[in-house]
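dumping these here so i dont lose them again. two proteins, back to back, each one seq then structure tokens. dont judge the mess
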Amino acid sequence: MESLPLFKNNKERKVFFLFIITLFLITLFFEFRTYKKVIKNEVYQTDGTVLNIYPKPSHQVIKVKNDDFTFFTTIAKDIQVSIYQDVNLTILTQDISFFSFLKGFYTKNFNLYLHQIKNSPKQSIYNYIHSQHTSEDISSLYSALFLASALTQDTRELASQYGVSHLIAISGFHLGIISFVLYFILHSLYYKVHSKLFPYRNKRFDLLIIVAVLLYSYLVFIDIPSSLLRAFVMFLFSLFLLRMNIKLISFETLFIISIVIIALFPNLLFSISLWFSIAGVFYIFLFLKYFKKLSKMVQLLVFNFWIYLAINPITHYFFGATALEQLYSPLVTIVFSLFYPISAVLHLLHLGEFFDPFIQTVLNMKINSIAIFTPWYFFIFYIIVSLLSIIQKKIFIVLNFSLVGYNFWLYYLSF
């Protein structure tokens, strides 16, 4: 049966976009109401949880999240604070704009009180992971992979130099692996139950619903990272489209999902990780649109390399770390698809240190990297050409010449 379009006509599109704009204004209103409550007085006392710690030569910067917003503040260098520790503090509010409130603002604080570290489920898992490693860098690596917690500064910089930050920062790629593993496990468990009790039901759809519930629970548990949120919303939307026999892989679908996320969570408009995630899916759709006639084997071989080269001009506009070792990134991505679920199982069995010698060797390697940023004019040109490639194959050819030329220039300078 041929897939149906998402909208039957332009009238349906107009109604939908009117609904999205209304939804965006409503959520923005509630955000603004919270903002006004915070800045009502010059000081605001709040409880929160420490999500990240940034050590500086003379102080520490901590990232704190409460029920309503996220902010950054400075504390003394000698204060012993831990990730996921609850704190109570009073912040200054007079210089906080609504724009910075949505982004995640920086402010000064006083009367900091550190609560005793609770043995919460997330803290327990965090400690369980760290107990299996002697290296803080490796511990933070696995915590980032499984709990979306912060990397140490050295590991974060090294990941950027290797060009594998997208593998460590939990995103839709990880969600895809988790979904596949869950589906595979549940399929074997549900098969007999389905055949005996529910033979009339769509087995695959049932399994996807169960997977969706488990993924949502995981998403909430790790505090809903923006890049993972995009992937989860797309997963749910895909279930709906499949159920309604509506075309799934389309740029319109990606656009709709993106604006729905922003309408529901206006603060994510400023999330670079979300935009990187959307860009990644966009170039995947471009690849599928124009390379679908290639054999499956050729697609498998070319896919990771093309996607990596295609998104490079965008990532290097924001992050300039460049090294020849980044060219291994597409191969590392393939290996990571096996490493990720295997390392998760090993940690469950308290054998998480299995890969530590290899990882430590990689962490000890010295990378000669330099900072090369995408020029703003090429960045704008590349975005325009990428978007126009949706409707014109000739422009897609221009895009390929552009990305090949750009990457040659990029790594020639880093040689």
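---- next one ----
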Amino acid sequence: MSHMCSRRVIASLLVLVLIAALCFGCAKKAEEEMVITIGEMTDLTGPASPAIISLHYALEHMVKYYNEEGLIPGVKFDIVSWDTKYDPARDLPGYDWVRERGAELIVAVPPPTGVALKSFADIDKFPIVSLSTNMPMLEPPGWIFAMSNPHFMMMKTFLKWISEEDPDFPTDRPAKIGLVGWSEPAIIEDHRAVAEYCQDHPDKFEYVCHYIVPFGTLSWSGEVEKLKDCDYIEAKGFPTGAIINEFINKGYRTNSKGIFDVGTAASYRGFLVDQCGWERLDGLLTPNMSLMWNEPTPLVNLAKELLHTYQPDKAKEWIYAGLAYVGGILNLVATFQILEQAIEEVGAENFDGQAFYDAAIKYKTGGPLWEGYPSGWGFSETKRYLADHVAIYQFSAEAEDLVWIGGWVPLVLE
């Protein structure tokens, strides 16, 4: 063999060794950075976006936190987001869209989304984490894991609480109660709960009337006129401020005493204050499963830390806005703890929807991060909602904040 030929052979061998080394390095890097994609379905631009846009960033911040801190060694998270525009017609296309882009689970925010997707998720055995909860998501127990209280149970819990704890509750007759808002799953579930609870407790409540009107309705004069004599009125979701203003402008109330919103108003705090002002909102009651920004608990402190680290320019605005971001961090802490558990059990390379499902049905809250919350919230083979208690808050003009009334109230299950 000539010297020239030998040099060519040696050069070729060196090239092969270099290629092999590079391939090994790429494989090692890929192994070190196993990517799990989370699909997000939320309202980014529609009517619910003022209350829930910060939840989109809560998910982004949680992903950054886990990725940058290396909290699950060898795993990185990615997000693909779909804007539902709060339009149920966009839910199924969004479900397909995020899955086509590699999502191995979905975080769904708006109440209608989990309801619309339940049957598809159950058939496909695809896990969905819903940050809002309605009974149709839960029955029969399937592949949707809801990270808050069911509205149906929360409403009954609240009615029991006001009949026992509200000093203004009538003592010589049943309290008259009514309900008004846009037609959507949460208020329909609230209506069913009110109707059942009043039927079961006729000595406590009389259900006067309910007005569930087409989505997008803006005028409330007729509904307010018919509800004016009620002791308690649920004004639900986005229209709450306009309904409160209508009551007060007509002279039927001087503030929001006797008005409530189950599970929603705390997320609309800034929106409501801008619409109505604190004096008009004074007395408005709202039960939630998350503590507000003014409670010094580890989860609240984590929310503040993430917000000030990743979105400091928005911190003041989103804290003013209300519950959404801090409540979303609570939901996402539970979600990522389930992810950690699933990856620990099967390995990052074997993670899939089934691994998440298997970990979720065993998940229970507890440990230092959950200090200030009741221990043992979680899922089971048959239970698909996380929280078993509510914290009841009241809008206070004096404090210019939401004030927690009492301790944790156990859910009424039937």
